[in-house]
Amino acid sequence: MDPVSFFLVFLAIVLIGAALYLGAGMVRGRPIGSGLDQPVPNLPAILLPEDAKPADVDSLRFALGLRGYRMDQVDQVLDELRDQLQAKDREIERLGALSQPRLEDGETGRTRP
């Protein structure tokens, strides 16, 4: 088979394949490339509780995805968030201890009549 005949047969096969591909897309009623749409989320949202504690951040787990976030960056941000929550909780405890009235020996905290 000479090169020109080979090229014509190859071109015919490519054109028939393209026509079948386009025809299959039109039959299904979906435009070409519609398979690249964003996936519909079917998992529950990952939320922290209203009064999040450092242990809540440690227990977070995210769904894996093909084009997800870089895990090392997410881990770094979550670690920083956990540390900030711990620091906040320690500061609240420290300020709470300072605001408690200190009772001297023998006092009950009651006012005298």
Secondary structure: elements and pairs:
Layout: H1 3-28, H2 54-58, H3 71-99
Description:
This protein has three helices and no strands. The chain is mainly alpha-helical. The model has no long low-confidence stretch (mean pLDDT 76).
| Proportion of helical residues | 40-55%
Count of helices? 3
The succession of helices and strands, N to C, reads: HHH
**Low-confidence residue ranges:** none
Basic shape = rod-shaped
Labels describing this entry:
single chain; 113 residues; mainly alpha; 3 helices; 53% helix; 0% strand; rod-shaped
Short description:
The chain has 113 residues and is mainly α. It has 3 helices and no strands.
